[in-house]
Automatic annotation (TrEMBL), chain A:
Protein name: Phosphate transport system permease protein PstA
Originating species: Flavobacterium enshiense DK69
A family per Pfam: BPD_transp_1
Domain ABC transmembrane type-1: 70-278
One GO CC term on file: plasma membrane
Length: 292, 413
């Protein structure tokens, strides 16, 4: 009896040590996130001003602002989404609504997974070989947008597929029973219900695209270009590449550190805002759909 | 009559509707084929360019290597040529030739032997003087541009072996811009990539697993709903921001703690990659643990096992394949990661012996060098070949994950 008691005690002690440790580790990871965020926010906050986001870089990128990089990134986000969003949503509709389970679907799924697993630098190589050299777009917004678009395509497809799957089959059956065609059912019944979730996916992929560096290194990004792009065949600066340049290979790394903190903060803000927005949308529409 | 017409119109309408449906379906099908086409195109372009490395001589375009006509050596390996010009091999006998000291010669060395007047104002006498010098120096090996090769050149041009796949993979020196012959050994880069990635997993796996267990089995639902989105947010931070954070925080920290001359080391890369791999590992293993049937857990508890015993005797074994998948995917992410690694590992292309020295990974090499490599040149192709290696590695990793998770889903049924 006594022995058993001791055993139970040891057991309980081991358990509480292990659980305490696991709890500590979990909170440490979250703490790490806050340390990274706080570090960049504190150091970058003093740099950010109206001039910082509306002026050209000056004095070898140690002064002035990052206006062209912001505009460049906006153009890239817009360009890549113009490509990836329609293609991705249509592809997901086909996969979820049209094609029957079988080897064809399996192949498409597997290929989409494979594309998602391709490292971003390989997209850079591919974009350079195909868009910049073969199709002779040169280093341009077009080449960069298409490369980034292909990169996020699997993300768009996956989130859209999930949103479509979440739509209850009774809606489809009801629509089909009323004599609507497949496309009518999809476009007038399924898509409107799934739309909020699809939108959420879109916003999340915007966050992803705006932070990618490796794919744009050789397809669009300019080291220093104090003017705005005027056509899709122009080079452009971009936020992530700008951060890389001024923190590793700028003309004066120490002097441009402040600018680097500011740029990092802007990038983080874009990602955070897109994440929060996506979550808020999900919650807002989630309630609305349920009420209906 | 009237009735018949209406019938026709309805027919037309249904026909039109059917055609429209078909057109839409085709468009949808084409869209869904985009990813497959892209994968095929990536493979095609990567390999077309990458294979070029093995079809070209690793000497700079338009240049040649020549020896004295009496020399018995006919062919040299790229590594041997480098050693000759680095003065590591100084006698032809070391290469199986005659016992004669090697005299390396580059175009610019000509000014040591001939005056400016002899060479001519616009170097118009270069070819004959090079010819003269080569023919009177028995141990010479000369590296010069083809435009300086005189019409009746007396020296013998050396044949340079193309790089073989084996040499490419096992070569220990990566000097793609080296003169006179590029050194394309990717072993240090492959090893560097693997070292940094496995270092990252060694750090991230225990931490990630502990967090996954906590989130899935121990934490209350409210705590979990609070922590999980935050951890997932880690995955959303751009890699270049991680690189920047690593550069200004982790690199100096590593330097101070280990008292190193430079903080840009493999370890710094591993730490940054570990932070980046955490969300992947946690999310996937937590999902796997959540799938443990409730009945199994309850059976274990009913037998008198403690909560902790249940976790490591029931939940972890049950979700082992999911956890493995998470770990493998984490490695995959780490291997393919470019910017963060590029910014913190120091990028020295040497075979790593410790994580406390600068290392260089495959993606970082591509990112750092492609901008300088002339399109279509040897260096450019070598970088595409590196891309092929990277693609193959990550492809295998994805397949492995597929196999592991597939086995898991079989087990459940």
């Amino acid at each position: 009896m006594k022995k058993e008691n001791r055993l139970a005690k040891v057991k309980r002690r081991n358990q509480s040590i292990a659980f305490g440790l696991f709890q500590l580790i979990s909170y440490s990871i979250v703490a790490l996130l806050f340390i990274i965020l706080a570090f960049i926010v504190i150091k970058g906050f003093s740099v950010i001003s109206w001039e910082f986001i509306t002026e050209m870089p000056k004095e070898g990128m140690t002064q002035g602002g990052i206006y062209p990089a912001i505009i460049g990134t906006l153009c890239l986000v817009l360009g890549s989404m113009l490509f990836a969003f329609p293609v991705g949503v249509l592809a997901a509709i086909y996969m979820n609504e049209y094609v029957k389970d079988g080897w064809g679907k399996k192949i498409i799924k597997q290929m989409t997974n494979n594309l998602a697993g391709v490292p971003s630098i390989v997209f850079g190589l591919f974009g350079m070989a195909l868009f910049v050299n073969k199709l002779e777009f040169g280093d341009s917004l077009l080449a960069g947008s298409l490369t980034l678009g292909l990169l996020v395509l699997p993300v768009v497809i996956r989130t859209t597929e999930e949103s479509l799957k979440a739509v209850d089959d009774t809606f489809r059956h009801a629509s089909l029973a009323l004599g609507a065609s497949k496309w009518q059912t999809t476009s007038r019944v399924v898509l409107p219900i799934a739309f909020p979730n699809i939108l959420t996916g879109l916003i999340l992929s915007i966050g992803r695209v705006s932070g990618e560096t490796a794919p744009i290194l050789f397809t669009v990004a300019a080291y220093f270009l104090p003017k705005l792009p005027t056509s899709i065949f122009d080079q452009a600066m971009a936020l992530p590449y700008h951060l890389y340049v001024i923190s590793t290979s700028g003309t004066n790394i120490e002097a441009s550190r402040a600018m680097a903190y500011g740029t990092a903060l802007i990038l983080i803000i874009i990602v955070l805002v897109s994440n929060l927005l996506a979550n808020a949308l999900r919650k807002y529409f989630g309630k609305k759909v349920k009420m209906n | 009559m009237y009735f018949c017409g209406e019938n026709k119109i309805t027919d037309l309408k249904t026909n039109f509707k059917q055609i429209k449906e078909k057109v839409i379906e085709t468009i949808l099908m084409l869209s869904s084929a985009t990813t497959s086409i892209t994968v095929v195109l990536i493979v095609f372009f990567l390999f077309i360019e990458g294979v070029g490395v093995f079809n070209k001589k690793p000497i700079e375009e338009g240049f040649l290597l020549a020896v004295h006509p009496s020399n018995t050596i006919k062919k040299l390996e790229p590594a041997q040529i480098k050693d000759i010009f680095d003065k590591k091999i100084t006698n032809w006998s070391a290469l199986g030739g005659k016992n004669e000291p090697i005299v390396p010669f580059r175009t610019e060395d000509i000014t040591e032997f001939y005056s400016e007047e002899e060479l001519g104002e616009n170097f118009e006498h270069f070819p004959e003087k090079i010819d003269e010098y080569v023919s009177k120096t028995p141990g010479v090996i000369a590296f010069f541009s083809e435009k300086y090769k005189s019409n009746n050149f007396h020296g013998r041009e050396l044949d340079i072996n193309k790089i073989t796949v084996r040499e490419f993979l096992s070569g220990e020196e990566w000097f793609p811009t080296a003169h006179p012959v590029a050194q394309m050994g990717v072993k240090p880069l492959i090893l560097g990539t693997l070292w940094v990635s496995f270092g990252a997993i060694l750090i991230a796996l225990p931490i990630g697993l502990a967090a996954a267990i906590y989130l899935s089995e121990i934490a209350r639902k409210r705590t979990r709903n609070f922590l999980k989105p935050l951890i997932e947010l880690l995955a959303g931070i751009p890699s270049v921001v991680y690189g920047f954070f690593g550069l200004v925080v982790i690199v100096p920290l590593v330097q101070d703690v280990f008292n190193l001359p430079v903080g840009e080391t493999g370890l710094a890369g591993s730490i940054v990659l570990a932070i980046m791999a955490l969300p992947t590992i946690i999310t996937i293993s937590e999902d796997a643990m959540n799938n443990t049937p409730r009945a199994m857990k309850e059976a274990s508890l009913a037998l008198g096992a403690s909560h902790w015993q249940t976790i490591y005797k029931v939940v972890i074994p049950y979700s082992a394949s999911g956890i493995t998948a998470g770990a493998i995917l984490g490695i995959g992410r780490a291997i393919g990661e470019t910017m963060a690694v590029l910014m913190v590992t120091g990028n020295a292309a040497v075979i790593p012996h410790t994580l406390l020295a600068p290392v260089r990974t495959i993606p970082a090499t591509i990112a750092a060098e492609l901008g300088e490599a002339a399109s279509g040149g040897m260096h450019y192709k070598a970088l595409f070949a590196l891309g092929c290696i990277l693609f193959i590695i990550t492809f295998c990793i994805n397949m492995l994950v597929e196999v592991v998770t597939h086995r898991n889903s079989h087990k459940k049924h």
